[in-house]
Amino acid sequence: MSAPDRRPARRALLVWAVLVALTLGSWYLGHESDLATPAIVSGVIIVAALVKARLIILHFMEIGNAPLALRLVFEAWCLVVAVGLIAMLSV
Amino acid sequence: MDGEVKRVPGEQGVWVFVLADLLVFSVFFATFAWHRGRDLEVFRRSQESLNQTFGLVNTLLLLTGSLAVVLALYRARNGKPEATRTLLLTAIGTGLGFVLSKFFEYREKIVAGYTLLTNDFFMFYYMLTGIHLLHVAIGIGVLAFLLVNLPRAPRLFAPRDLSHLESGGAVWHLVDVLWIVLFPLLYLVK
Asked: Which of B13, B21, B47, B96 has the fewest Cβ atoms surrounding its Cβ within 10 A?
């Protein structure tokens, strides 16, 4: 048997570290109310959330390696939810 | 991912379920955001009574559970069922931790007098986190099914055909994705 390929596991760990960093960053922003206007803080928090969702979908669900049509459906979901929520939260 | 042959992971049917669920939850997200816009002061004041630390811990638990499921799949692909088993158990542990944390969070809220009937914000809070909690329970069930069937049917986890593990993993990651949007929407947005 050939040696197991460790590269996917290392990449998964890296993705996890980015996800944790974005989570802690968003949590901090949610705590600090005076950094920027509410609309900007909310916008940054929502973008971070959908970036995280997209990372999980592409790397953990392996949709990044799926046929383009399926990938585009997921990409569209991330984009529509991000834009829709930012628009609705900023009114 | 780079240069590999494009393929649909798992069974195709699981993606119908995943996409349908994402669509249903995006309607929930939009409904919440719309009601929030109509009653901003109540929603902001109610949000302040939430304990964001619970939300943070829950997020870290689910992210770590997702990592464990991904690593379980990689180990299975490398023909290491024992490591797969340990990692699946780890993921189930994070899921149970999430349920336990939610129990304490709900108790804290109910003791403080916040119920489903307090106002629209808390109606959404209990409904959305409750529906999500049901998803966590289903996810734990799926992982437990995979774990129980691992020693009984080693061929189920033969490196060549891991579609069961890929499908179960997709359901588990879906639970993670939904929470990742729900957490900031309920706990963090200004």
From this structure: B13
pLDDT digits (tens, 9 = 90+) for B115-168: 999 999 999 999 999 999 999 999 999 999 999 887 666 565 666 678 889 999
Q: What global pTM score does this model have?
A: 0.93
Whether the predicted pLDDT of A48 surpasses 90:
yes
Q: B-chain residues within 8 Å CB-CB of A50?
A: 181
Q: Which residues of B touch A13 (CB under 8 A)?
A: 67
Q: Does the pLDDT of residue B6 top 60, yes or no?
A: yes
Closest residue by Cα to residue B55 from A82, A45, A80, A17 = A45
Which DSSP letter does residue A4 get?
Answer: P
- Chain A residues with CB-CB distance to B79 below 8 A: 1
Residue type, B93: G
Helix (H/G/I), strand (E/B), else coil: B39 = coil
Q: Does B59 reach chain A within 8 Å, measured CB to CB?
A: yes
Give the closest of B33, B52, B69 to A27, CB-based: B52
Q: How would DSSP label each residue in B104-173?
A: HHHHHHHHTT--TTS-HHHHHHHHHHHHHHHHHHHHHHHHHHHHHHHHH-GGGG-TT--HHHHHHHHHHH
From the number of C-beta atoms within 10 Å of its C-beta (0-12, 13-18, 19+), residue B36 rates as: buried
Contact present, A34 and B169 (Cβ < 8 Å): no
Residue A53, SS3 per DSSP: helix
Q: How far is A34 from chain B (nearest CA, A)?
A: 11
